[in-house]
From TrEMBL:
GO cellular component: extracellular region
Signal peptide as annotated in the record: 1-21
SUPFAM superfamilies: Metallo-dependent phosphatases
Location(s) in or outside the cell: Secreted
Record GO terms (molecular function): acid phosphatase activity; metal ion binding
Keyword list, A-Z: Glycoprotein, Hydrolase, Metal-binding, Secreted, Signal, Zinc
Listed Gene3D superfamilies: 3.60.21.10
InterPro entries: Acid_PPase, Calcineurin-like_PHP, Metallo-depent_PP-like, Metallophosphoesterase_PAP
Name of the protein this chain belongs to: acid phosphatase
Amino acid sequence: MTLTLVSCFLVALFGVLYCEAELERFEHGAKPDGSLSFLVIGDWGRRGDYNQSEVALQMGIIGEKLDIDFIISTGDNFYDKGLTGVDDPAFHESFSDVYTAPSLQKQWYIVLGNHDYRGNVEAQLSPILTEKDSRWLCLRNFILNAGPEMAEFIFVDTTPMVDKYFTDPEDQVYDWRGISPRKNYLKNVLEEVESALRESTAKWKIVVGHHTIKSASTHGNTYELNVHLLPILEMGLVGQKLDIDYVISTGDNFYEDGLTGVHDPAFNESFSSIYTSPSLQKQWYHVLGNHDYRGDVKAQLSHILRQKDKRWLCLRSFILESEFVEFFFVDTTPFVDKYFTDPGKHTYDWRGVYPREVYLSNLLKDVDAALKKSTATWKIVVGHHTIKSAGHHGVTEELVKQLVPILEDNSVDMYINGHDHCLEHIIDSTSQIHYFTSGGGSKAWNSDVHWWDPEELKLWYDGQGFMSMQMTQKKAHIRFYDVFGKVLHAWNLTKEMHSAI
Ligand SMILES: *[C@@H]1O[C@H](CO)[C@@H](O)[C@H](O)[C@H]1NC(C)=O
Ligand SMILES: *[C@@H]1O[C@H](CO)[C@@H](O)[C@H](O)[C@H]1NC(C)=O
Ligand SMILES: *[C@@H]1O[C@H](CO)[C@@H](O)[C@H](O)[C@H]1NC(C)=O
């Protein structure tokens, strides 16, 4: 009897990860009773104006009550343009002379905001300021171990992550010394954050940055952080807990327009040099998404990519046998009429797909034959496009008409897809096939939901996240997680139950 556990980890969109470099670390002990308390303040330095002094007064009172251990500043320390230099009087006028309450005479741990980058950044990072006021500690990226094992704070320099400060600075001049080449700087920061999170053994892990990730206010969500930082919070924290056997990618491997060729640097930049975490050094099984079809498809299918990175395996349609489970990867993009009849300004690479009718009918025949031949306990079909979805793209009619009858005929257990940028679990009430959408790898929050029968819709989540599956012969345990690794939805499927139907 086999008791092998298959765990697969689904990522629908590409994020970022890991390396060896080390962030500077600081230690801050807890109180004798093991507790810690601190205040957090951001966007403050205005020489006392705009109620800065009033806020400081209240911080002093609360700081006293809570007997705080330290203070965190989330940046924009000096308006409107940071400091002009280490001797800028704003340092006293906006910091030392404002936060004068006895309870605020503690260590301050400070990151930079975008306004700080409009002045002399090196001044704020300089030890000369710490000599002027011993509370001051400002670095670009660093770690604070508090407790010391209790809480780990990872301070992240988020300003250089935001594109518009570089591409559209308007009349602002930013001090990017120490940042360029920007790409390398960001890559290193993200790698360091990922490795710090992965290695941390602290009970609480807290990331501090200046820019919003989720915000209902003026600036809203920061797109770049959602794309680059959130995947690290997801994968770094949860990925290591499952012993992953392989990774499945449900397509749209390279945005916006696939690869230009086998030597497109995007292969390295968006795959090899990104998914470097040890837990992701497994085989990756890829299908193609519609965005991949907008580039050179043959490049993604080429064995040359496999020579460049042996984890890479991308085929149009293929079968993966894994003891008691068989995965059928199906190339769904050529099924969708509108890419042919109404491609808009996009050009699709249909080499190898024409004549389309023949391609599709052969593919359907092959899938049907393979499913019929399969003796696996679990049969799982994977494709990029949705079949049942309450999300933005909704139901793909072409697949409902052509693929679903084959799935139903052959008692397929699950269909797993991406395409819609959300997480969903829909059970078809007649066939009992489970439809899983795992498309929340990065850009989400479409607020675009269509009505779906609540009897069938077991999960609808519009934010980022991912799905995991652990399987044995008899049981499949499926979980959906949000970006913090919190389980949003869990579902067990058992084989006895299935064969009884
Ligand atoms: C200062 O705070 C008071 C009380 O909230 C508010 O009425 C006033 O508008 C604030 N002043 C400024 C400049 O924001
Ligand atoms: C991949 O990119 C990294 C930096 O992003 C670079 O160090 C490495 O040399 C590149 N590798 C290849 C094969 O181009
Ligand atoms: C699934 O089964 C596991 C035991 O294998 C159990 O701990 C868990 O609570 C079950 N989850 C659900 C949602 O039924």
